[in-house]
Amino acid sequence: MYKKFLIVASENNPASKNILRNLIQFKRNPLIASMSNSASFDIYTISEDILHEENLNLEKINKYDFIIFPCTHKSTKGEKSLSIHSPGNWREAKLGGKEEAVSPSSALFNKFLFEKLAANVKKYELDEKYKVTLEVTHHGPLINKPCVFIEIGSTEFEWNDRRAGFAIAKTIVEAIEEFKVNEYQEVAIGIGGPHYCPNFNKLQLNSNVAISHVIPNYVAPITENMIRQALEKTIEEVDFVVLDWKGLGTSEQRKIVLDALNKLYVAYKKSSEITKG
Fold first, then answer.
1. Nearest CA to 48 among 18, 87, 11?
2. CATH 3.40.630.50 occupies which residues in the chain?
3. Taking the alpha carbons of 13, 16, 19, 21 in that order, is the dihedral positive or negative?
4. Is the dihedral of CA 107, 113, 114, 115 positive or negative?
5. Residues 130, 81: contact at Cβ < 8 Å?
6. H or E, element range at 161
7. CA distance 21 to 45
8. CB environment 174-203: b (16+ within 10 A), e (fewer)
9. Do 113 and 70 touch, CB atoms closer than 8 A?
10. Domain spanning 186-273, CATH class
């Protein structure tokens, strides 16, 4: 499905540099990759931050099938995390992108990448130190190619942790080389819950459901336009919406979401109703 990947990183972002140092050792000769007709990646670095599309060469980006942004993650609690999320803004565009606009996202690739990350964190014995988590869709850039952020959080120490950089680099390479479309997986967007998506994490790892964009409850009231954006910017056809029912807050907020889904003729399931392996 995707053959040409581009890794976009900032030379002034410590996690980007850390991950790239490790990625370079896995880069294959482009001639060999083209002869074998296998997926491959190129690296594109800039000196500015990667959250603002005006800093990016969009003409270059548009030549590729899929874009991966390795980056730092910051949190007020300083929690140690390795995270994955789709870019975009449900409301204000405080960190790149545009208001109420999200970038294309692949539910199937995001799930595969997340599974690989969780497996490698365990394989390289980082699971006692780092929490592997999805994040909701947030911040820029806004581009026209399917893309995903993969991040190290949340302080200078973690950003420069070579073991974390290696685990993410290995995850990126394995995902690129091994990804195949699983036609039996169900594609969904997520609505509700907090920023770090505890219920959607469980589904992404332990169910047949693949999640692309996630709309958190803290952007409430969740609008029909937000849901339409998430549906339209998911590369695959969406089978249904997954609702973090308790994470939708009040009965009034749940009604707003259900009314919007009914208006859009979109099926939905509560996260608690989905079978987990």
1. 11
2. 4-178
3. negative
4. positive
5. yes
6. none
7. 12
8. bbbeebeeeeebbbbbbbbbebbbebbbeb
9. no
10. alpha beta
Question: Is residue 190 classed as helix, strand or coil in its secondary structure?
Answer: strand
Answer for the pair 109, 146: CB distance below 8 angstroms, yes or no. yes
- For the record, the structure tokens of 121 come out as 């964190």
249 Cβ contact partners less than 8 Å away, ≥ 6 residues apart:
192, 217, 220
Q: What digits encode the pLDDT tens for the residues 33-50?
A: 566 678 999 999 999 999
Return the CATH number of the domain spanning residue range 4-178. Answer: 3.40.630.50
Q: How far apart are the first and last CA of the chain?
A: 27
CB 158 within 8 A of CB 181: no
CB count in 10 Å sphere of residue 6: 20
Indicate the pLDDT class of residue 32, thresholds 50, 70 and 90. Answer: low
> Distance between CA atoms of 244 and 217, rounded to whole angstroms?
9
* Three-state SS at 81: strand
pLDDT at 35: 61
Total residues belonging to the chain: 277
Side-chain half-sphere CA neighbours of 229 within 13 A: 23
The yes-or-no verdict on residue 31 having pLDDT over 90 is: no
How many other CB atoms sit within 10 Å of the CB of residue 223? 17
Place of tokens 């302080």: 155
CB 81 within 8 A of CB 161: no
Ranges assigned E (strand) in 142-184: 147-153
| Tokens 């800093």 sit on residue | 55
Give CATH 3.40.50.10700 domain extents, the chain: 186-273
Helix (H) or strand (E) holding 85: strand 81-85
What phi and psi values does residue 109 have, to the nearest 5 degrees?
-70, -40
